[in-house]
Amino acid sequence: MFVGHGVAAFALVGAVALSREIDSHRALQLAIVAGLFATLPDIDILYGPLGLLNGVSGVFDATDAFWSTGNVVHRGPTHSLVFAGTAAAAFSLWRRSSAGRVVAATVLVGLSAVATATGGSVAGAVTVLFGIGGLVITQFAARRGLSSGAVLATALVGLVTHPFGDLFTGEPPVFLYPFDVPVVTERVALAADPTLHLLGAFGIELATLWLGLVVYLRLTGRASRPQIDRKAVLGLSYAGAAVALPAPTLEASYQFVFTILAFGVIGATQRQLLSRQLRAVDWPRACATGLGAVTAAALSYLVVYLAVL
Prior knowledge:
about 60% helix; about 300 residues; mainly alpha; YdjM-like; transmembrane; membrane
């Protein structure tokens, strides 16, 4: 979902810009900035690598250690709608004027202080990173001529949409942090069967990526339908994994995720890329082919899983 958050905001802002007939170049810039803001809340997972310092015995053990440590603060203050609105306003003020920068810095420091007082030093530290990361994105937007209003709009879209994407994949974010007011207390279940739930969440992610690709093609003046090489059908060979691998769940998904995403490499096997002629690579076609292969793999896995269920 790390990628999905950014792509969802990119697609949303890009589609709205297209509907309002905004210049395609400016629309692409707005969509990119919104996508960057949408990835920002997951900066809190940078605490996760500390879990590897005690030593690990393999890839899956390392993954477990990473998440068990990262989840100490993950989906806390950086995923709060209260912090999102406040931070978006601060980023906009930073873009507006020198005086605005003073106010923005004060607001962001205040958010870090609140996070420290209510969630501890680690929560405060990741909130500091959250603020710094947002200012970096704001500077990126400013260098491309985006106004303070555009920064506010894209930051709100990115930061506010992010936590809702986590409702299918883990513990619900603390939407109104630091206020102890529960909004959603349980993960949204797509199916009673945990494997079907995982496949449903994976399907939502794939649909988001396809939408993002189509919007990108429209924004860049390419064909609205992505071109997919026939080799994407190789993804159908993943059907056997439904009986060869343990049934995946959100709690034990690594084998499924790592193996199925490997089919995305199929799109990168273009002759120009293999010969390191990077400028000659048709990147949208490569992405579409890789995404098509992963989609074919997921659908074939689903069919076989349902057949043997």
